[in-house]
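seq as requested:
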Amino acid sequence: MNTNLQWLEMPQNQISAWQINIGYAGKDFKEMVQAEMPDAYLINCFETIDELSNSIRHLSVLEMPDVLMMEVDDAEQCFSFIEALRKDEHLQDILIVLLSKFDNEEWKKRAAALKVHDFYVYPFSIVHLHERVKLLLKLRILKPYNNNHQILDYQKEFIYRMPPSKRLFDIVCSALTLLFLAPLLCVVALLVKLESPGPIIYRSKRVGTGYKVFDFYKFRSMQTDADSKVTEFQKVNMYSQNSNSTDKAVFFKVANDPRITKVGQFIRNTSIDELPQLFNILLGDMSFVGNRPLPLYEAELLTSNEWSMRFLGPAGLTGLWQITKRGKRDVSEQERKELDNYYAQRCSFWLDLKIILKTFPALIQKEQV
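struct tokens:
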């Protein structure tokens, strides 16, 4: 079949509303993707970027594929192609996924600059890949081709909106709690400052509701260079040890972490280090109850449909994971993800109330994690 006309020659009875049309360019992963993707995906394969590009030129706006999936090769031709797509007003928002044999940081940076929706490095899970594509389409990250006609934006259906009553509760309670605990906050700040040099408040970028990135506040409980040592401690990451998967662990936690200071250990075990997040609640970045906002390096690994559900609920100071598994050595990554998803799907006033009441006994953790 002439690849330039492959979509045009396809029998119309093969096209149905439930099928997702993928334009695929590359040879290394083609057979794996074709064999393992579900039947809902209609995959049109091309060996080179040029063939894919030539085929697209023959298509009308309504015949365009839903997704472009391309392998990155040494010639880096895909980046020039994507750059051209981003300059085309009809194609600039098309969903693009890149697949690579190598974990190349420069390629990832170029992909991010070109607003590529995802970058998978082999070995990757086809299950995660197709779930990610479904999520992106569901959230309308790929804008519908409307040919200058108005089409409803269904993304609004999947954006979490905090109930006014929950927000009012957060504002009143966070303000009153900050006022009541002001003396304790001052004492802790002084102890942190006296024990080790560095800032009193640890501030980091976190990902919360709807993948919103914000500045997250805690009392500093570690040495000032703790973040730079994360890679060194990956081999003793509790989540890696409790997982049977060969994939990189999403979450990071170390038992008896040597980066923690003496004051830091006390305020972590008593959860005092979390109190500055009351300012995050007051500002609207978080709520009292929700899923914990994640560091960027953790959030970027939770992109599949199965796990990104957690970001469709509120970010919180406490949540289901805190009252059931916080501080336990046997916690698994799977369990934490499932708890987060459960809350995102079922969050309500009564569930929040139960979590708040169970939070107080869970504040003190016995194990040094």
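The chain has a mean pLDDT of 77.
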